[in-house]
Amino acid sequence: MKTVLTVIKNILVWLLVVAVVAVMVLTVSSALLFDKNDRDIFGYKFFVVQTDSMSATDFSAGDIIIDKTVDPATLKEGDIITFVSISQDIIEETGGSGTVTHKIRALTTDGNGRPGFITYGTTTGVDDDTVVTYEYVVGKYVAHMPAVGSFFAMLKTTPGYIVCIFVPFMILILYQGIKVIRLFRQYKREQSAMMEEERRKIEEERKQSEEMLQKLQALQAQLAQQGVTAPDDGVDPPPQQPQD
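Below the sequence we write its predicted structure tokens.
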């Protein structure tokens, strides 16, 4: 049972580690890549949807949309594109970025004869104020991730950072600290046990030496009583030379 609990605990700890690392990597990635018109990964760009102008058909505020860099000349009616708008209303709606993602209603040209697109948001169905010419096109919409943008927006707040990053890291640090303390205590116990074992062996050897000494002393006393003197060095004396 203890082994099963240990395995479950280790799995939960590793899951927490993976989750925290993933959140940190994604947070850094979002800061470096999201809503950056000039940055992409293998031709794909990522934007956080700021308004519900397309929520009736495709995506909503707080979603992450994925765009692919394309040649504006290949775009057609019905495509959804991300572009930088010069409309003051859209700039205010998007918090100053002016980046918006709308559907193409028709191909057209602006007042200077440059090719562009008439775009609109499907929620209202109202055309945007200005023609989107090719130089303002950022990319073509290909997919979206629901609510992911809201999650990253929450991470940028103090409560979000505390709950999703700081607290899990503190739990991991506390867990590792407790683990280190337990290992240190186990090491000290093992060291104490080894020292105790060494003392026991030394004590046994001392007792054995005392017993041997006592036996030798008893043997010497017994030999003395019998009138036999044990040689000191264990070597027989040399034979006497005969006298003439």
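Residues 158-225 form the longest helix (68 residues).
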